Amino acid sequence: MFASMKVKYYFPLIIAVVLLIQSCAPTRLVRPIEEKKWAAMANTGGPLVGYGSATIPVPLSAVGAAYGVNKKTTAFANVHTTSLLFGVIQTDLGVLRQLKSQNKWSPEICITPAANLMLDIWETNFRFYPSLDINLSWNYKQKPNYIYTGMSNWFELNGQRTLDQKQKTRWLPAFHLGHTFCRTKWNYSLESKFIAPFSSNEKLVVDYKSFGSSGAIGIYFSVIRKF
Fold first, then answer.
1. What local confidence, expressed as pLDDT, does residue 161 receive?
2. How far apart are CA 53 and CA 49, in angstroms?
3. What is the pTM of this model?
């Protein structure tokens, strides 16, 4: 009973923490997978923080699956394992859509709208956060490997923050740059991310590492197994 009451009281704070760390997640998919094919996905990494005298990435993680609906469209779903540590079940459901294929040095362009759903285990409180990713990618030297860059956007629909404060931040952007190594069955991606570049990182409990007094730098590793 006491644990349930405590979680209920702090649920908005728990959601705020989960939203912050999960909006720091890496890009799920950059390009569509093959039509009628399945893929399993996993990733780890997070924003860089000061830990004693060292700088380390927060060890966030998620697992999921994707399915090639057609040549230009891939549907996917992920479960955020880190959120479970906060007593919150979180999943994201989305679709990647190719708008333009690569033509020499003109990049492939894809967008990824997604629904991010959160449910606390004890009190069944629910939150929904829409997001939209935009990615540009380039193959190089006639190889399947590609570099990519883009922008992710999370949107806050709730009008209140923790402790009944008015919600002032409705848009959580991030910019990323990455490289994907493509093999027959496996893809491996390394990505860096500039998270919340327009928000101050001063006077925070966590010592986020960045280029200056705003945002945070993230580092991630992702793997995809194609079937």
1. 56
2. 10
3. 0.84
